[in-house]
Amino acid sequence: MPDALVIRPLTGPEELGLFLRLTYTLDDELADDLATGRRVPRWMWVALRGERLVGRLSWWTHKAGGEPFTLDIFDLDPELPEEERADIGLRLLETATAAVIPAGTRRPEFGRFLPADWREVPETRARLETLFGVLERSGARPLVERLRLEWLPGTPVAGPTGRLAFRPVRDREDLVGLMTSVMEGTLDAHGQADLASGLTPREAAEQHYDEELAEYASPRDWWRVAELPGSGEPVGFVVPARNNYHHTIAYIGVLPAHRGHGYIDDVLAEGTRVLAAAGVPRIRAATDLGNVPMAAAFARAGYVAFQHAVNHVWDAPGASPS
Question: How many domains does the chain have?
Fold first, then answer.
């Protein structure tokens, strides 16, 4: 008779070794996340049959003291039969969520990194589809699949064309105003979801700025606004930054009135030049799989897709599914 299933949080950082009996690409970040408070043991849950780890999950936040921001680790024992694996996964997810996320509040988004060829490898696809099925049984729905991109030193960087002039971002209002403008006609699924939830473009921009961009410790003078030479009319912006793990093109946009003229290449090149000049070991970026123009711009700039990522979301309690 199999051992009874035990579902519980970690008792402390000393149990990290137990958590690491299943594997995922973020494993090498977990010790530092615990040390800095981006993860806490009560957010890191395991499902055990005796000594065997058959499932695990963890939430993450931007900085110590924050609320759970995203569910970014969710792994199930691949040696288990599919039906048993799915049942354990659902029990683990629902038990942990009930203990960590306050009743009546919206669950944090789920995100996972995937091999770029995950659909073409039958074993990988089957395991991931089981996991996604668990999420959907819990009420989640798929939001978007994204390309994860990387630029490495030695890759050519385009020089200025003279079509645009660049200046540093002056202050919060300077950037938030431009971010508000680029929400019009956005192809970004997260931006579209923000607007569908009832946020105004201004509210969505402020939330993005305050919850993400404002948290970066890297220099604000890296951030750039692109303008037409002479008139100073803003065309777009780019936010080169360093998050907790990598240097990144955190946000980039061209204002609606100036789309269709290829300015995105100039703006992206400027952001890449800023980080390349700082001698960074790599630059990371991401864009939605369906955002074909942005993906093409990254490819022209020498960024290579090395992974995909998927996001699932739960609707707010009482909300009609989007």
Answer: 2
Coil, helix or strand for 154? coil
3-state helix, strand, coil in the chain (%, to 5): 35, 25, 35
Task: Name the burial class of residue 247, with classes exposed (0-12), middle (13-18) and buried (19+) by CB atoms within 10 angstroms of its CB.
Answer: buried
Q: Please indicate, yes or no, whether residues 123 and 177 belong to a single structural domain of this protein.
A: no
Strands 44-49 and 165-168: unpaired
And the tokens for 117? 């060829």
Indicate the SS3 state at residue 45.
Answer: strand
Q: How far apart are the first and last CA of the chain?
A: 44
The per-residue pLDDT for 320 is 57
Output the pTM of the full model.
0.91
CA distance 14 to 100: 20
For the chain, which residues score pLDDT lower than 70? 1-2, 318-322
pLDDT of residue 175: 97
Which structural domain, as residue segments, surrounds residue 94?
A: 5-146
Q: Give a yes or no: residue 151 inside a domain.
A: no
